[in-house]
Structures are given as C-alpha cells and as structure tokens.
Amino acid sequence: MTDFPTIFQNQYSCALLADAAFRGGISLDAAPSGLTPIDRAMKLAGPMVTIQANNDLVTILTGIHQASTGDVIVITNHSNDVALIGDLIATEASRKGIAGIIVDGLVRDTTELIEIGVPIFCRGVYPMGPLKLPQNLKGIGDIGLELTFGDTTVKSGDWAFGDADGVIFIGSLDLPELLKWAEQSYQREESLAAQIRSGISLGELLDLDTFMEERAANPQADFNQHIAKLGQAI
C-alpha cells in the first residue's frame, strides 16, 4: 500500500487534500473549526481508533493500549471541563508509535506534550484530569463507536489527516483516488507558485480579466470551470 502518512507529511496539506477531493468528486469531511495542533508544526495522518471517553480515563488508557503503530486515536467526551490526556498518555503513545491523538476537548501538561512530540490536536487546555472529577460525573466509555464532530460522523478504520489548518476525515477506500487527485493538485499549484515567483501576475495566469468580462455578462459564471479550462488550480 502507498505510504499515505509519509506523502502527507512531506508534501501535502489538509487544504490541498480538501481541494483535491472537491475536484475529484470524492466525499471528505472536516472537523468543526477550533480543533488545532498544540504545536502548529505538528501533522498527523492514519487510520482512526475511536474512543467515547464519558469522563472515563480507563477507557482512554485501554484505547491507547489496544491501538497499533500508525493509528490515530480520536477521543470525544460529553463534557469539555476536563483534560482527557496528559504527559504519561502521550509518552505511552510515543513508545507505541501512535501517529497522533485528536481530542474533541481539552488536554493538559502542554509543555511536556510538545516536548514528547506526538501530534496532538485539541480545543484547549485545562489542568484537571478525569480522575479528579466527582464520582457522579464519571461514566464508562466505549471504544470503536461512531463519533460525531459537529455534522460529521467518523468511525474506526476511517482516516484522519491534520495540520495547522485543522482536521479532515475520509473513508479508507477513497484514499487511493484522493491521493491521485492530490498529486495533480500539488503539481499544478507548485507550477503556479513558481510562475508567480518568476514575475507573472496571478491575475494574468488565471486570465482574470476575461473571467470578469464573462461574469459581467453572466453573474452565474463559474470560476472553477474557468480555471479548469486553463489547466490551473487555486
């Protein structure tokens, strides 16, 4: 199988994959805004192991314990007022070769998490973990359930990609087609950027004057179709 994580780490971005999915008519979902890496240089890619925490640290520990090298741990919780992972969990994730952790909630030990280096995406930080909660707020979590991020539902085995722009999700069967379109988008955008650096204006490269004339005559003129005819991408 193509090494999707390495290709993403070395060349691609979530923005480029989103553009590629649009051009290829491939189904792709994004997590709601605000889910970002604790270090903006962090990127992750891999198949997901889903955890509904329910304020249950044991379930989170079990999910990490059962996960395989290269997996992305995805954790949701019914309450945001608790840090779901800290430095010890991140240290274990690093030891196991986990590709990253996505927490639809809060984390703690931020300085140590950055030093450990496992890519971690979250919504914020908080100093108190689940074990410090009152007993009536603790539940029993589940591993492998479908999870909801805003209007998006994800499941174990689907893939997650994350970088400084956020997180996107895609079904594993669509990966080869997505990467094919991503390579086309990457080559087009690299060529376009090189031409701009050489001194050619972006407006000229996209024949913007012609499109503005078309739109003046037809307000429904489609800019995507216009640049596709030019063999360009933006």
UniProtKB/TrEMBL annotation:
- Pfam families the record matches: RraA-like (PF03737)
Identify which cofactors the protein needs according to its UniProt entry: Mg(2+); a divalent metal cation
Q: Which residues bind substrate?
A: G86, D87, L88, I89, R108
Q: State the source organism's domain of life.
A: Bacteria
Q: Which residues bind Mg(2+)?
A: D109
Q: Which GO terms describe its molecular function?
A: 4-hydroxy-4-methyl-2-oxoglutarate aldolase activity; metal ion binding; oxaloacetate decarboxylase activity
Which Gene3D superfamilies does this entry report, sorted A to Z?
Ribonuclease E inhibitor RraA/RraA-like (3.50.30.40)
Q: Which reaction does it catalyse?
A: 4-hydroxy-4-methyl-2-oxoglutarate = 2 pyruvate; oxaloacetate + H(+) = pyruvate + CO2
This protein's UniProt keywords: Magnesium, Metal-binding
Reported EC number(s) for this entry are 4.1.1.112, 4.1.3.17
**Would you identify the family this protein belongs to, as annotated?**
Belongs to the class II aldolase/RraA-like family.
Functionally, this protein is described as follows: Catalyzes the aldol cleavage of 4-hydroxy-4-methyl-2-oxoglutarate (HMG) into 2 molecules of pyruvate. Also contains a secondary oxaloacetate (OAA) decarboxylase activity due to the common pyruvate enolate transition state formed following C-C bond cleavage in the retro-aldol and decarboxylation reactions.
Under the subunit heading, UniProt states: Homotrimer.
What this protein is called in its record is Putative 4-hydroxy-4-methyl-2-oxoglutarate aldolase
